[in-house]
Amino acid sequence: MFDKISPAKTLYLGLTFIFCAFITIQCTTEQPNNDSSASQQEAQKAKEDTPELADAMGQLQTYLHKYALAVEAKNHELATFYFHEVRASSEGIKENIPGYEGYDIERFMTMMFDPAVEPVEKALANKNWDEVRQKTIDLVDSCNSCHNATAHGFVKIKPGFNNNPFNQDFSAPE
Ligand code: HEC
Q1: How many domains does the chain divide into?
Q2: Region Disordered: what ranges (predicted)?
């Protein structure tokens, strides 16, 4: 009976066997690949969810500069507004990017930057503009100290009091 199997049937059975073997190999070899590409995707997503420190620093720089231009114009309301944003940005960095490239950003921020914040706020509250300028220069020094401490000393910040590149009028209301 077996010898009555036609060559076509043999070919068909043979092909079916090869196909099944092929599928089995595909499934077993692709399994780990799928897993690793899934974990790669997760790692990629975690990376996207962590904000870039450079972006956050750029935001800090913009608010600091706008604050300095409002100080230059002795516009108390605007300066107070922007300094609040400077403070909020630095708090946000501590919370969202506590570590970066092996540096303890949260600790550096707390040690170097935070002590320079309150003197500015105090001088600003008293509308003592000379003091405000001096304390702002101290604050900018603390930005640069931290850049030096984190191998980014080439990013040199200036107060930028009289250097307005913004499409915004900083003058105090009459
Ligand atoms: C905790 C330490 C620390 C403090 C404090 C700090 N920085 Fe930075 N800053 C860094 C590090 C680290 C980088 C490099 C980030 C990177 O490589 O992505 C950086 C990068 C920058 C950059 C380059 C990114 C860009 O957008 O051009 C600017 C500008 C900057 N900081 C501004 C400031 C200003 C302004 C202050 C103060 C108001 C400040 N930083 C305070 C650590 C600090």
Answers
A1: 1
A2: 31-51
